[in-house]
Amino acid sequence: MNKQVKFLDLGMKDYKEVWDFQESLFSGILDVKIKNRREERNDDTPNYLLFTQHPHVYTLGKSGDIENLLLNEKQLESKGATFYKINRGGDITYHGPGQVVGYPILDLENFFTDIHKYLRFLEEVIIKVMADYGLNGVRSEGETGVWLDVGTPFARKICAMGVRASRWVTMHGFAFNVNADLGYFDNIIPCGIKDKAVTSLNVELRVDKVDEEEIKKKILKYFVELFEAEIVNAEAEQLLKV
């Protein structure tokens, strides 16, 4: 089992560009697995973790309802936002500046073959990061992601998650609101859930801005701890040659 994870921070990138990049890495892992099966080989499958931020964009999962997007095409344009229907689970969500977005593209056969455990581990990474700032991040039964004050009228989501998996290979991931412009969430019914609000780490800490680089380091630390992984820094060109 290969627990080495090639890590790349892409910075601010267009959503579609990163989606295509994810797809190429995802397909590459599947190709190795298929070849191993057909030719009775035992080649290691690679794993990747991408960090990024996107310009304002709304994405709708394959089980989502377009009615949860409250803007028409012209209104999207006026807000400088784009929209994509994509192949992850979940409903509608927003990505934009001030989020730390993570896309683990893993062969779970290198770790464990349990998609629910995988999602719980991703949630636990964010919960541990929040605890470092004195915040009690929690899960909400039946709803993926990380929340605060679940079970009260003040329940609010701080990290959205949605993944795709095939042959135990994952893509898509999480969007952690660190310094997010929460006004953009007013244009959707986030994740199709009408009775819960959305928040951001800077709002909860009552500061203008949280150090996003520090957040990324903490996410990596807890990702390594939970997945018992080894992180290796990589370049985009190197990844595409794999």
From TrEMBL:
InterPro entries: aa-tRNA-synth_II/BPL/LPL, BPL_LPL_catalytic, Octanoyltransferase, Octanoyltransferase_CS. Residues 43-231 form the BPL/LPL catalytic domain. SUPFAM superfamilies: Class II aaRS and biotin synthetases. It is an enzyme of class 2 (transferase). One of its GO terms (molecular function) is lipoyl(octanoyl) transferase activity. It catalyses: octanoyl-[ACP] + L-lysyl-[protein] = N(6)-octanoyl-L-lysyl-[protein] + holo-[ACP] + H(+). It is found in: Cytoplasm. GO terms for biological process: protein lipoylation. The keyword Transferase applies. Substrate binds at R88, G89, G90, D91, I92, T93, Y94, H95, A160, M161, G162, G173, F174, A175. Pfam families: LplA-B_cat (PF21948). The active site is at C191. The record marks K157 as: Lowers pKa of active site Cys. NCBIfam families: lipB (TIGR00214), PRK14345.1 (NF010925). Belongs to the LipB family. In the reaction, the free carboxyl group of octanoic acid is attached via an amide linkage to the epsilon-amino group of a specific lysine residue of lipoyl domains of lipoate-dependent enzymes. This is Octanoyltransferase. It comes from Flavobacterium beibuense.
